[in-house]
């Protein structure tokens, strides 16, 4: 064999993609879809027939999983749309320091940082429950390279 060095550059990472394709006609309410480049939870999915070409279209209404902002879109039923991978993880709140949440994974005890205290009512409720000495669990939603605290429950 020859001593040829075949360097193909850096190897590709084996990480999962942020989205995957799905037929627009198979989308259902409370599922997720990418609208205007934003991960949205579907609040309404309706099917209509276009008068122009006779195509069946899917009318989608959804809210941004991070901000709650409303988005709408229309796609032909047989076309693929991008569906984001959305992961909800619950953590135990260990502390709040300078607007940042100190979180612990309950199963592993692993510390998680870098999540900011949400603005608005959710942030105020999390902070008041924590300062009152309650056991607070925070739900962190991760999608499309972003993550934010999107829910909580106190015991």
TrEMBL record:
The keyword Protein biosynthesis applies. Keywords: Initiation factor, Protein biosynthesis. One of its GO terms (molecular function) is translation initiation factor activity. This is Translation initiation factor IF-5A. It comes from Streptomyces amritsarensis. Residues 85-153 form the Translation initiation factor 5A C-terminal domain. It comes from the Bacteria. The keyword Repeat does not apply. InterPro entries: IF5A-like, IF5A-like_N, IF5A_C, NA-bd_OB-fold, Rib_uL2_dom2, Translation_prot_SH3-like_sf.
